Amino acid sequence: MHSGQFDAIVIGAGHNGLTCAAYLGKAGRQDGRKTLDEIVRFSTHDARRFPAYEAHLEKLAQVAESRLFTTPPPFPPGGLGALLEWLRLAGWIRGLSTAEMTGRVKIFSMSASDFLDEWFESPEVKVTLATDGVIGANGGPRSPGTAYILLHHCMGGVAGQRGLWGFVRGGMGAVASALAASAKEHGATILTDAPVAQIIVRYGKARGVVLHSGDECQAPVVASNLDPKRTFLELLDPALLPPDFTASIRQFRCEGTSLKINFALRGLPQFTGYPGAPLPLHGATMHICPSIEYVERAWDDAKYGRPSQRPLIELTIPTVYDPSLAPAGHHVMGAFLQYSPDTLQPPTATRGGFDDGSGSTSWDDLREPYGSHVLDLIAEYCPNIRDVVVDMQVLTPLDLERRFGLTGGNIFHGEMSFEQMFVMRPVAGWARYRTPVPGLYLCGSGAHPGGGVMGAPGYNCAREVLKHA
User: Which residue range or ranges hold the Amine oxidase domain (predicted)?
Assistant: First the structure.
């Protein structure tokens, strides 16, 4: 039985939920010279520009990061307190230089392609950098707003180096384990295999949760790490929410376009362009996407409801850094794909995209055929891939929704477009982690500042809970 009385309940033990619980309980670069040497192979001009480009992103990231761990001001502003918060925000903006302010406006409004065109001439350099603008996004490299997604993926860092991605020793589960350990050390109780069926609301306030087992856990505070649609449309009676709020949540866009394939390998893939193994590139993020046009065509397929015939494929082999993830001599490889829409349409003669001949609009039918198709695409660059693949797991947007509770399979808990960010996330008037139900908070990526493994929504939510406790 999982019943009892608690000080606060956090629904969903993702990294933001665990971050929120922990704070409540607690109350090298690859080598810069080598990078430039590789860029010179494509463009001397771009190699000269690259350090300035990185410095520009550094300044933009510093500005953006300073807002990540703040609560958005009330919107629309009302009352003296709200006006003071907006004045503080205006003061922060006033401190920006003209170049920083211009760059900030552009990064929110431009496409990744247009943004990169201002810096580089080489198609190879531009498409390599543009991939950060479309990962997890419902748009192509020429879609307005994808420049911000690019910046979002460049924020943070590893070992003091901004913009680097890190492999976690022991796998990504080790992050959750460390957060869980910290939360428990400060008094949190973590229940697993205990899905929440309903949020309890009594006398107009959140009072706890009902588990699928029927057990009740009571608390004066409930923080949901689930996405906004699942939180408000599945765990609450809509009659408890203002009609306009419910309508806005229903319109919150969270169509996923990402697909993940996990491979178990008996050896390293060998690339025709870089023979020999092991190579430095095996420890890098490897992209299969020859040009901006290639990625844009992949998006064209998906926006009409079919998986991309030739998708953007991002490959990583974490066992190059952490051999403990596989038996000796073996490896694991992850493939992250854009674009595979959650909602599929029937294939037609004029509609592009993947078609296995069945005409199916079900990911349950297309999962394995599409996984095999992707393996064929990888084989164009790694001829030995089928020889070294021992097993593979295909996670479609439908699987991401079923396994991880991501509505629409959206890895960000909702599109990170301009109109769904900052004071508009998840909806206008409710971007401050509180909800129309007193005592109920939102602590996941559907709140400001959005998706990514950074814990900011959980941290910000914990601060608001403690402020109003």
Answer: 143-254
Burial 423-432 (b: 16+ CB within 10 A, else e): bbbbbebbbb
Number of folded domains that form the chain: 3
Query: In this predicted structure, what is the pLDDT of residue 394?
Result: 98
264/366 same-domain check = yes
Strands 312-316 and 331-338: antiparallel
Peptide bond into 278 cis (omega under 30): yes
Same-domain status, 45 and 148: yes
One domain, residues 46 and 117: yes
Tell me: do 14 and 58 sit in the same domain: no
Q: Cis before residue 381, ω within 30 degrees of 0?
A: no
pLDDT digits (tens, 9 = 90+) for 257-297: 999 999 999 999 999 988 876 777 888 889 999 999 999 99
Dist CA 284 CA 293 (whole Å): 23
CA–CA distance, 439 with 203 (Å, rounded to integer): 11
- The model's confidence at residue 16, banded by pLDDT at 50, 70 and 90, is confident
Domain end position, chosen among 386, 404, 422: 404
Q: DSSP characters for 267-323? A: S---BTTB-SSS-GGGGS-EEE---HHHHHHHHHHHHTTS--SS-EEEEE-GGGT-G
Domain that holds residue 344: 258-404
Task: Dump pLDDT digits (tens) for 217-246.
Answer: 999 999 999 999 999 999 999 889 999 999
Q: Are residues 277 and 312 in the same domain?
A: yes
Last residue of a domain, one of 110, 140, 162: 162
* Interacting residues of 281 by C-beta distance below 8 A, sequence separation 6+: 271, 274
Residue 311 shares a structural domain with residue 186: no
